[in-house]
Structure formats: C-alpha cells, structure tokens
Amino acid sequence: MEPTASFATGAAREPLSYPPEVVARIAALCEAEQGREACGFVVRRGRALEVVPTRNAADRFHAADPAAFPRTSRDSYVVDPRDQLRVLRELEAWGGEIAAVWHSHVEAVAYFSEKDRSDALPGGVPAVPGADYLVLGVRGGRVTEVRRYRLHRGAFVESELA
Q1: Contact at 8 Å (CB) between 154 and 124?
Q2: pLDDT above 80 (res 8)
C-alpha cells in the first residue's frame, strides 16, 4: 500500500504496524464498556504508539436530538468533541499525530459499516486524513476480532494489523 499523508504535518508516512500490546490495550478498553461501543485514538509520537480512549457521546447527542441522532452507544459511537479537541491540542503542543481511530461493535463482527464510512468521510473529505480505522467486534463481553481499514483510492480496504 502506498504512503499516506500525516494529519499533523501533511508529510508522507509509511503505514504502521500495531503491536500486540497496543491491540490488547484497545481490546481491554472495549471489553470494559459492556453493551456500549467504545472509541478512541491511537496517537503516534516518533515511533511510540499510545492508546487514547475517548468518551462515546452518542447517548448525549441522542438524548438532545433523537431525530438527528437516532442511534445510541449500543450501536454507534461519536467521539466526544471535547476529547477530540483535547487530543488535537496536545498533539499540536507536544508533537505527534493521530495514527488511528478505533471503536467497537457490540454483539457484531468487526466490519467497516456504512455509518463508519460516512463518519470517516463527511462530505467526501477524510475526517482524520491519513488515519487508519480499527474496528473491534465484541461478543459476549469479549473482543472476538480486530480489523484494520485504510482509505485507498476513495474506498476503505481491509489491511493487516502487523
């Protein structure tokens, strides 16, 4: 796969590999959110990867406007805008970039849904340019699969984690 542009710098970067400890940390966070989709980012600073959980604001948005936000955290995620702003400010201050956006699907497989695609490409423009999307399927409270998706020539394609 060809290099992608960094969200922080616009510079080309090679695709990442996600080590088992990073995947295990994300899986533990997903399993802790019983019956709710968990979400967050993987941040890269130099060669180091850090898992940054965020709050899922889907329930809050649904309660405020169920017509505009018909889904709840049971079947959707909305990265809390305040958490996203905090992460972006930290990256600006200390350096780094969002390498991946991750979330879980509750009692479902780890697929890149049409909603995931529309959230990742609002108006056809990448919400987080260059970022991977990691989707974790959670069944019976346990992560059963993890899949990685990358934007490639206008389509999200599955690629290897490592």
Answers
A1: no
A2: no
Q: What is the dihedral of CA 108, 111, 112, 115, to 10 degrees?
A: -20
Nearest to 73 by CA among 31, 111, 106: 106
Which residue type does 85 have?
L
Position 89, amino acid: R
**CATH code at position 82:** 3.40.140.10
At 26, which helix (H) or strand (E)?
helix 20-32
pLDDT band at 15 (very low <50, low <70, confident <90, very high): low
What is the model's pLDDT at position 11? Answer: 39
Residue range(s) defining the domain that contains residue 111: 4-159
* Beta pairing, strands 4-5 & 12-13: antiparallel
Domain count of the fold of the chain: 1
% of the chain at pLDDT higher than 90: 87
| Cα–Cα distance for residue pair 10/69, rounded to 1 Å | 32
Residue found by looking up tokens 């898992």 in the block: 51
pTM: 0.90
